[in-house]
């Protein structure tokens, strides 16, 4: 029943995008050859989504992670059943990281990523019309697989880092994730929780890649970043941020409070440059303009300040503010809006 509901949602998405199966072209469903994924695929094909699927293939590259000795017991019960192997796995995780640590007689998450990447050559072949006489290449595929395998698929396909894998969790049962080209668009259908309860897509957050922002900020500290040019849009965003902090409307704010809401990605030098603990708007604007020349931000300051304003107003938590900051950075990157874009 869950899979049929997911199939209904999938059909609705296809209809809103392509209107009719004939306009979609050849759509192939790839399935892990495990029994539970075969059952899921069968239920989807019995739903309205089945009208959009041209054919179905299986691939052993899409099976779930091999848990080795822990297969069937679950990671939570493995400590009691295999205490020695459990302790060894924990040492490996502490030393190498969870992503790299291999299950006893099984696979690590890295092994799953390597295995899944072997599947990509098949999809590349399917997209080439020269391999199949009489029909165009396959541009749309549906993948029915398992939690760790899907997370590994996304990581490798979208060129995310192992850090991204660690900060994200497996997608819920029967959930649907959308990838366009190499861009992860998010959840189309939230799926169901462990107890079978329907989930809300608003409650499912995909954390950004932590290594991405480190690369951006590292580049801005090096010689690859052009000088930052302050704009009127930045001034407007700074004024809105200032007013969000200036609760009593006395025209001054605390430097420490400003830095707290800005977080680690804001102007790091304003506290050192200010001669007093409070600032009026004109002085704050002067310090920001001066500091951004010495410490270019990884993205436009109006983006940074818009997130900081939402945090200051309580519209975003600090954690969600960090995610929004990275999302804006990724958007700027894809639109060629980063400070060093266009440099020879």
Give structural notes.
Residues 233-268 form the EF-hand domain. This is EF-hand domain-containing protein. GO terms for molecular function: calcium ion binding. Pfam families: His_Phos_1. Residues 339-344 have low confidence and may be disordered. Helix 6 (109-117) crosses helix 8. The relative contact order is 0.09. The chain is built from 16 helices and seven strands. By secondary structure, the chain is mainly α. The chain is 48% helix and 9% strand. Strands 2-1-3 form a three-stranded parallel beta sheet. Strands 4-5 form a two-stranded antiparallel ribbon. It has helices at residues 2-18, 21-24, 35-46, 78-81, 83-96, 109-117, 120-126, 147-157, 162-167, 210-221, 232-245, 255-262, 270-273, 281-294, 301-312, 318-334; strands at residues 27-31, 55-58, 140-144, 176-180, 183-189, 253-254, 278-279. The protein has two domains: 2-65 and 107-207, Phosphoglycerate mutase-like (Rossmann fold, 3-Layer(aba) Sandwich), CATH 3.40.50.1240; 212-334, no CATH class. Helix 3 links the parallel strand 1 (27-31) and strand 2 (55-58). The chain starts with a helix and ends in a 10-residue tail after the last helix.
